[in-house]
Design a protein that fits this description.
The protein is of the alpha+beta class and 123 residues long. A three-stranded mixed β-sheet has the order 1-3-2. It has one domain: Zincin-like (2-Layer Sandwich). The protein contains six helices and three strands. The longest helix is centred in the C-terminal third of the chain and has 19 residues.
Length: 123
């Protein structure tokens, strides 16, 4: 799957999000990047030689925001094209993994921790 097709797949999956996840998507930017940098992986305690990321949420989760947080730039979710493409053998598998990754990262934006996300089946 080429990059343009991947971008369309991500857009389609954003349009199909479950209601609890879709309702809170204000001031959130979703971007597609080629791959996470080695420096980013190291900053997250990952080993760039054997670890990668499919997605990453960066920002202040909604429940942690105060009145003085208004006017901030949008929070950001990065979806990493190459690791996802390389991990999935079929289009269907890639579609499922993109959906899972989007929901996982949006859940962080909504303030959920990994245990709560696992409870939804998107860990």
């Amino acid at each position: 799957m080429n990059r343009e097709e991947f971008e369309a797949l991500v857009a389609d999956e954003l349009d199909r999000l479950p209601t609890p996840f879709a309702e809170g998507l204000r001031n959130l930017q979703v971007v597609i990047e080629e791959t996470p940098s080695r420096a980013l992986l190291r900053s997250l305690g990952l080993d760039p030689r054997k670890d990668t990321l499919f997605g990453l949420y960066e920002g202040v989760p909604l429940p942690e925001r105060g009145f003085d947080d208004s006017g901030l730039l949008p929070d950001r979710i990065s979806i990493f094209y190459r690791p996802l493409r390389e991990a999935c053998r079929t289009r269907r598998e890639l579609q499922r993994e993109v959906r899972t990754t989007l929901i996982h990262e949006i859940a962080h934006f909504l303030g959920m921790d990994d245990d709560e996300i696992d409870g939804f089946g998107y860990g």
